[in-house]
Amino acid sequence: MRDADIRESKVTIDLSGDANIVLIGMPGVGKSSAGVVSAKMIGYDFVDVDLLIQNKYGSTLQEMIDSCGAEEFIRREGSVLGALDLRRTVISTGGSAIYSLEAMDELAANSVVVYLRAGIEELHRRLPAFDDRGVVMRDDSISTLDALYNERAPLYERFAHALIDTDGLSISEVAFAIKAIKDSIDRAR
Description:
Strand content: 5-15%
Distance between the termini: 25 Å
Largest sheet: 6 strands, mixed
Number of strands: 6
Number of helices: 8
Radius of gyration: 16 Å
Strand order of the largest sheet: 1-6-5-2-4-3
Helix content: 40-55%
């Protein structure tokens, strides 16, 4: 397994034993699947923000995007992210969480943010039904997975304290990489 890219120079938060691990990345990279497995490995709780949004608003992500539009969905997502008050939790965000800049700044200040990155070819393989996934497109010029990837990648990079390339890795291998990041940070304290 490849080592995770830990950007220690960007980790300037208080990494006490109860700091959260926040997973960001494109839809289909394994944030929810690897998140729950890694939480079990390190003894943390697990929260899927997409499920919190669905429970709060009583509809699926796609139904919300269709009925209220991308900007309102992003506002709702930011509200849910901003209300999180968790410790020792692996948090799986939605792929569009990085559009909620204020909420992401807060999470990045109090958590270890791990960018799960997959290459565009891998994302095409993992997301054959991309249009039915509840994916936020901020404007009409972004209508393909490639365009969405190109728009979001710099934002994921901006907030990431660590990076895991998920191409060719199983969910267990990604979870072990998340655990390795936590272990590395714990050793550095």
